[in-house]
Amino acid sequence: MPSSPTKNLEIFDNPAPARDYQIHMEIPEFTCLCPKTGQPDFATLILDYIADEKCIELKSLKLYIWSYRNEATFHEAVTNRIVDDLVAVLEPRYLRLTAKFYVRGGIFTNVVVEHRKSGWQPLPPVDLAKFGSQPPIRE
């Protein structure tokens, strides 16, 4: 049976809840519809989070993201809604979603939304390497 889009986000227990570690995901195939024209809007979503007790299950995240394909919504609204939904199920220590929308009318739009759990303080940063853009396939 083929998969269908859904708003149901599944989670699993964090395998290392005593440690702060970054989970980084790039979702290059996000689509929704422009509420003014009905034309498709395309974006790459970049999700970074530090889990507390729960982590997001990837297939459910894929089906959740797919559920926006036929929804008319502004870039700012959809980015905030995705963060609200993820925070509701994950209750992460920290979460940032960057939505990098492709050009529309000569304008690129980036929307960045962050959440911090009350009382959580990040450890001092140790920047050993940064994540660069990932090609759609690995060699």
UniProtKB/TrEMBL annotation:
* Binding-site list for substrate: 56-58, 75-76
Keywords from UniProt, A to Z, are: Cytoplasm, NADP, Oxidoreductase, Queuosine biosynthesis
User: What Pfam families does this protein map onto?
Assistant: QueF
Q: Which cellular compartments is it found in?
A: Cytoplasm
Catalyzed reactions = 7-aminomethyl-7-carbaguanine + 2 NADP(+) = 7-cyano-7-carbaguanine + 2 NADPH + 3 H(+)
Q: Which domain of life is it from?
A: Bacteria
Its UniProt pathway annotation is: tRNA modification; tRNA-queuosine biosynthesis
Q: Which Gene3D superfamilies does the annotation name?
A: 3.30.1130.10
The active-site annotation reads 34, 41
Please cite one Gene Ontology biological process associated with this protein. tRNA queuosine(34) biosynthetic process
Q: Name one GO molecular function term.
A: preQ1 synthase activity
- E.C. designation(s): 1.7.1.13
Q: Name one GO cellular component term.
A: cytoplasm
The entry assigns this protein to a family as follows: Belongs to the GTP cyclohydrolase I family. QueF type 1 subfamily.
Role description: Catalyzes the NADPH-dependent reduction of 7-cyano-7-deazaguanine (preQ0) to 7-aminomethyl-7-deazaguanine (preQ1).
Q: What is this protein called?
A: NADPH-dependent 7-cyano-7-deazaguanine reductase
Per the UniProt record, the lineage of the source organism begins with:
Bacteria, Pseudomonadati, Pseudomonadota, Betaproteobacteria, Nitrosomonadales
